[in-house]
């Protein structure tokens, strides 16, 4: 912005990688290039023809209070602008000169062919210039005629490295200070210069002349003709503190140049303002009610702060028009959050509005998609939105219908109602058979949370399997330990669970039971089950002598406490052959079950709490009643149990070949794997997984 001239601006515009300087006198309504000076500092002609060549200015305002910056103008000196720049097709940082204008940018003169700092003195009545150079200097230049003639003055006897210059407070001052260094090692030197001795009188009325602001001869700028009282270039006098800028103005008749394009309109090459491709003029009346009026734009509006009157003002000013009657058009239905999701049992606010139509006479009906709906007599009654609460998870088709006597229109959105996913559990077997399909299930709490995506990661696979169902079947092609991870994405929530599955080609398995006192200490959490599994395994290894790597134990979720153990063949002994694996697993099973039948597998849960491990089909109840009144019946019961135990042992010996598993073989060979079913316990606050 140029100080002292309302509506005048200078700007650099980059177009096709070329920066050029433009000027406007009507707040940016019209821009043009700067006409370069006709001659240079030495009087040589400059051949510069618009638009191929023009004057370009550096418009950096100094952030340093001790330097003048690249451009300077003052309220007290309207029309005088000093700036550094270059002449050519574009702005350049080389061959920089200093230029000045005395008529607000209509004509420019070159005053220096190097960079200088320029300071305004006596409200612009005098200009002081000092050279920008890294070398020490002794001189400055002073002008009393708006930069037409410059006089050279010496300000110091010793050359000074100039760091900056500063005028005394107030633009009317005739005192300035130069500061710098005599050498790079010396301290700051301050040189104070008082120019008052150069002037021998104060300015009188005869020293001033009138100056008419114009734009290439056009006197009406921003709707007025402005006339300023300026000091004559030949006058050498002091204006002083009492001087103030005198300006008179006279209003002009409005012309097309006093108007710019209104909102939604663009200026075409022929100068007319027409609607932009994205703007629909009819939308301006969409909130208009029948019987009322609205301002119908002509495509133009007066430039802000423009003071013109009369002329073509009626032709370009917006006109009052009666509100038209329309059938509903451009019906919109959105949520107040702008999303397509909502939370169960929370308020959802729907916003309904029309682009066009008589809002006061158009009814709105909203069907929430859950069997509920509501009707409003007019659009204006629902400006704050329509609230609704969904009580079930799901995807709902929400429809809004606007209707009046001229027609109707419907808008639809599909709303996903979800609830917070709190917990997931991956249900999987502890041991799986090589090359045999395994079913994996992700159990959610709550079970219904809306649209859910399942991401499955198997072992070291770098690519996941993505499903919309909570169950997936997978085949493990190699023996070993595999980690299965499932991630469940519901809305903005992502939870995961991870299980380790041992994959083997041959194994035998059996269920375990425990003395009932273990249930009193079972918190039914995964960490506890993992710890107890390790304790049971160590107890079984100590009691049977089975190698730890041949025994796997897992405690199952739920109460009463149960577990399952798996026996793996010693590959060094069996060599992976079925004919050797079968008897080997039978031998291991007899050894482990024998220890269990004889109550040899025990462990101490805590001081005073001894736990006995049984094979699952043996009763954990006491076999002998030690009271005196029942000693005979106890003996009979004991004998009965012994007989039953022998019978079970013989049956086990006969059928022990059934408790081993292998991947491939004849039809007489079977594979055994535990089947675990997850059941949700609804009586607790959190889901509990039980095995039936």
Overview features:
five-stranded antiparallel sheet; 692 residues; 48 strands; mainly beta; 39% strand; Wheat Germ Agglutinin (Isolectin 2), domain 1
Short description:
The chain is mainly beta and about 700 residues long. It folds into 4 domains: about 10-200, no CATH class; about 255-320, Wheat Germ Agglutinin (Isolectin 2), domain 1 (2-Layer Sandwich); about 330-420, Immunoglobulins (Immunoglobulin-like, Sandwich); about 505-660.
Q: Would you mind describing this structure in some detail?
A:
This protein is mainly beta. The chain folds into 4 domains: 190 residues, no CATH class; 67 residues, Wheat Germ Agglutinin (Isolectin 2), domain 1; 90 residues, Immunoglobulin-like (Sandwich); 156 residues. The protein is built from 5 helices and 48 strands. The protein starts with 8 loop residues before the first strand and ends with a strand.
């Amino acid at each position: 912005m140029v100080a002292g001239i309302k509506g005048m601006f200078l700007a650099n515009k980059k177009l096709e990688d070329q920066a050029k300087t433009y000027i406007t006198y009507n707040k940016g309504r019209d821009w043009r290039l700067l006409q370069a000076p006709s001659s240079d500092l030495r009087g040589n002609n400059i051949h510069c023809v618009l638009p191929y060549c023009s004057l370009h200015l550096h418009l950096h305002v100094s952030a340093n209070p001790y330097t003048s910056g690249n451009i300077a103008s003052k309220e007290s000196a309207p029309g005088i602008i000093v700036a550094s720049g270059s002449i050519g097709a574009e702005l350049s940082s080389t061959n920089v000169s200093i230029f000045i204008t005395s008529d607000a940018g209509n004509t420019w003169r070159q005053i220096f062919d190097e960079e200088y700092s320029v300071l305004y003195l006596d409200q612009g009545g005098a200009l002081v210039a000092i050279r920008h150079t890294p070398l020490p200097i002794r001189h400055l230049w002073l002008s009393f005629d708006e930069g037409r003639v410059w006089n050279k003055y010496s300000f110091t006897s010793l050359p000074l490295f100039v760091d900056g210059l500063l005028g005394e407070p107030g633009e009317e001052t005739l005192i300035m200070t130069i500061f710098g260094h005599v050498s790079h090692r010396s301290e700051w030197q301050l040189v104070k210069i008082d120019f008052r001795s150069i002037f021998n009188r104060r300015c009188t009325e005869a020293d001033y002349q009138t100056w008419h602001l114009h734009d290439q001869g056009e006197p009406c700028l921003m709707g007025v003709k402005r006339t300023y009282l300026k000091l004559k270039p030949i006058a050498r006098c002091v204006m002083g503190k009492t001087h103030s800028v005198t300006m008179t103005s006279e209003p002009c008749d409005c012309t097309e140049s006093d108007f710019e394009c209104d909102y939604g309109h663009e200026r075409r090459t022929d100068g007319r303002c027409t609607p932009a491709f994205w703007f629909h003029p009819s939308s301006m009346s969409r909130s208009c009610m029948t019987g009322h009026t609205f301002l119908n734009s002509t495509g133009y509006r007066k430039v802000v702060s423009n003071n013109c009157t009369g002329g073509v003002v009626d032709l370009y000013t917006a006109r009052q028009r009666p509100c038209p009657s329309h059938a509903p058009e451009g019906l919109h239905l959105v949520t107040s959050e702008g999303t397509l999701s909502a939370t169960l049992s929370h308020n959802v606010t729907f916003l309904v509005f029309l682009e066009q139509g008589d809002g006061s006479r158009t009814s709105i009906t909203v069907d929430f998609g859950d069997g509920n709906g509501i009707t409003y007599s007019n659009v204006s009654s629902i400006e704050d939105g329509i609230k609704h609460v969904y009580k079930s998870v799901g995807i709902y088709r929400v429809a809004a219908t606007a209707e009046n006597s001229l027609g109707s229109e419907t808008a639809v959105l599909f709303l996903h109602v979800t609830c917070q996913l709190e917990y997931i559990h991956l249900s999987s077997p502890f041991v799986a058979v090589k090359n045999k399909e395994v079913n994996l299930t992700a159990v959610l709490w709550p079970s219904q949370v809306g649209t859910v995506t399942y991401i499955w990661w198997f072992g070291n696979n770098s690519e996941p399997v993505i499903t919309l169902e909570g169950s997936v079947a997978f085949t493990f092609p190699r023996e070993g330990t595999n980690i299965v991870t499932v991630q469940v994405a519901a809305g903005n929530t992502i939870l995961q669970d991870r299980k380790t599955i041992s994959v083997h080609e041959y194994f035998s398995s059996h269920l375990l039971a425990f003395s009932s006192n273990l249930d009193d200490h079972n918190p039914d959490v995964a960490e506890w089950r993992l710890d107890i599994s390790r304790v049971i395994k160590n107890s079984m290894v100590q009691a049977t002598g089975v190698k730890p790597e041949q025994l796997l134990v897992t405690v199952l979720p739920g109460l009463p406490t149960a577990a399952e153990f798996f026996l793996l063949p010693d590959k060094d002994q069996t060599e992976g052959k079925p004919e050797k694996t079968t008897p080997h697993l039978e031998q291991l099973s007899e050894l482990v079950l024998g220890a269990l039948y004889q109550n040899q597998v025990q462990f101490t849960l805590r001081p005073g709490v001894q736990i006995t491990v049984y094979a699952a089909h043996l009763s954990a109840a006491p076999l002998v009643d030690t009271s005196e009144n029942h000693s005979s019946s106890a003996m009979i019961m004991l004998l009965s149990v012994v007989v039953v135990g022998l019978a079970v042992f013989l049956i086990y010996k006969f059928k022990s070949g059934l408790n081993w598993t292998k991947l491939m073989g004849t039809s007489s060979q079977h594979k055994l794997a535990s089947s675990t079913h997850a059941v949700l316990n609804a009586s607790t606050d959190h889901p509990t997984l039980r095995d039936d």
